[in-house]
Amino acid sequence: MSPKSFGLRLSAGSLAAAILVAVPAGAQTRKAAQTSAPAAAWTPARTADGQPDLQGIWTNATVTPFERPAQLAGKPTITQQEVAAFEKRASENRVDRSPGSGDPGSYNQAFFDSGTTWLSTRQSSLVVEPSNGRVPLKPSAEAQRDYDLAHVADSYIYHTSWERCITRGIPAGMFPAGYNNAYQILQTPGYVVIFSEMIHEARVIPLDGRPRLPASVRQWNGDSIGHWEGNTLVVDTSNFNGKGMIATSAATGRIRSVQESEALHVVERFQRVDAETISYEVTIDDPNVFSAPWKVSMPLTKNANYIIYEYACHEGNYAMEDILRAGREKDKAAEAAK
What we know:
Number of helices: 5
Shape: globular
Oligomer: single chain
């Protein structure tokens, strides 16, 4: 990832966090993916009001790709030898890059926290459905993405909601990025709160069976309603306003900047499978954007030593200002050339 991906901004507090958590975060990524199959003999603790206890600070950094790469086509899982080779390659690519020859460079590696290990399930991608590990993106959605990316210097409206410091989105905010991959889960009677480190967002999810908002009420992150199915928290979200994007981090590859529609429907499942692991699954359905529903599966790993600092997005968002300023300079040059 680089400043060209428009997804990298660190406030002073976030920079300090990157340094302070470098060792703990590295340690936790060695556990970054326990199997998603629940341990039959393990029973989760309960909160005071009887909910399965999901509380704590959880992280999801990993080098496992979002979609299955071409060289792994037809392989839903890979061998341990292949895992070792991919991890070695990722380590070798983790080098500082200085500016030069038109390349603005990037942050020093000390400020990244994108994980060091493959998921222990050895799944070949975070996308697990369809079986090819690829998001079933419609050509029209790809064309819109390409148009938006080609016009980022024209207006802020072509940038993702993350770049605009509005929100990383749902489910985009749960997908691993280059840094700040932490989530704090809090539970109170009738509610679950998921606080994301990136853009310091708090999702307040009611569990009281209330009706969904009217269809006329649309929000950036939709309307989330939760309920328990045994020990699994199920969060059903709809009523999106269609202004967001399904993925906002460069770590999601070709899916980054794909526009959502108001038809988006997201179902997330959180199940604590052992003391250190929550199995997270999300199914995404948007018939205006995808030819079929698709699913992402990955673990969230507990890290009691992780410190979440404020992510001061607007204060550090120099990229947006500079990109748009460059666009206006090009406009002036084109007008002068007439």
